[in-house]
Every structure is written in C-alpha cells, then in structure tokens.
Design the sequence.
C-alpha cells in the first residue's frame, strides 16, 4: 500500500466512525445537553477534565462555553481542570499525581455543578479520582469515553451518564470526541438561544 493509499484509508476509517457516531451518539448527546443546560440554569458550573490529548480537548470545550463556538451569547461558567499549570505541578509534585483534578474539585466543586470527564479508555487514574470526588460532592457526572469506559464506567452511579464513542483506536476516539464536544456546544447554544 502506498503512502497516499494509507492516508486515504485513514480518512475513510475516520468517516466510517463519524457515520456510526451519528447513529449512536445523537440521543445520548441530547440528554447530556439537557443535563448541562439544567445545571447552568440552576447556577451550576461545568468542570471538565481529560488526560493527555483529551486534556487539550477539555480546554477547548471550556473555551467554547466561556467564549463561544460560533454563536454570540453570554459567557457560560466552565472550567478546565487541566488549565492551571501551577496547581497541576504543585499537586503532582507533592506526590498527588492521581489527585491533580480531585484536589481542585475538593476545593471548588459544589452540588449544583457538573463534571464532564473526557477519557480515551476510562482507565486513567486522575480521571477516576476526579469522578469519585465529584460523586462525594453530589455533583452530576457525564463521562465521554472510547472503548467501553473501563473503571470509570464501573464506578458510575445510576444518575451519572456514560457516553461511549464508537471507536477504539486513539486517533479515532479523539476525532469522535471532538465531534461530540462540538455537538454539545451546538446543542447548548440551540437550547439557550433557540438558534
């Protein structure tokens, strides 16, 4: 297979996953939008976290809520737990790598808030600790993950929401996650603005 054919196959694989996502994710994403909007309308904040590449996607999602995706609207209270390098390195440097997000939620999370966890596999220890902390604080939780959700899926309460992306390869998971996050932003804007 030539390089051109190899790259073309990557694009075809990504398209196939996105087509599957349209069928599998529309209803769960609509439910997540309703939960997020309900939290925002009740003075809650949206906390979002990820690990590695999904931490970058978490920053993007927080940006889209605080600033905007496309539609002009008032700023929405969203915080990316991966966004403060001093906090992250301070907590991790003190032997708390697994608690880099949980420690922040301990200090700042409230029952009216909602935590959105972005996980490639659902096995990431800092994300599992953040989930436990959010549950301890009676926060709502949405987990967006590839694979089957791993330890995160196993630890969810009945009132939490698991959205499993139809992908397993890391690149396909991240591509699907970006699409899902854009859909969440569009859905939030549609719900708030009727646009």
Sequence:
């Amino acid at each position: 297979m030539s390089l051109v054919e190899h790259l073309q196959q990557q694009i075809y694989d990504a398209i196939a996953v996105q087509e599957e996502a349209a069928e599998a994710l529309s209803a769960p994403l609509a439910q997540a939008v309703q939960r997020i909007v309900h939290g925002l309308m009740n003075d809650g904040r949206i906390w979002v976290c990820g690990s590695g590449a999904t931490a970058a996607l978490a920053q993007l999602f927080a940006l889209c809520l605080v600033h905007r995706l496309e539609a002009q609207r008032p700023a929405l209270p969203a915080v990316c737990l991966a966004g403060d390098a001093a906090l992250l390195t301070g907590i991790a440097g003190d032997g708390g790598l697994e608690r880099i997000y949980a420690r922040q939620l301990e200090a700042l999370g409230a029952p009216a808030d909602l935590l959105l966890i972005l996980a490639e596999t659902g096995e990431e220890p800092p994300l599992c600790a953040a989930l436990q902390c959010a549950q301890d604080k009676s926060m709502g939780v949405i987990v967006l993950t590839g694979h089957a959700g791993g330890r995160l899926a196993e630890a969810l309460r009945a009132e939490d929401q698991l959205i499993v992306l139809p992908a397993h390869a890391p690149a396909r998971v991240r591509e699907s996650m970006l699409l899902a996050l854009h859909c969440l932003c569009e859905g939030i804007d549609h719900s708030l603005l009727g646009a």
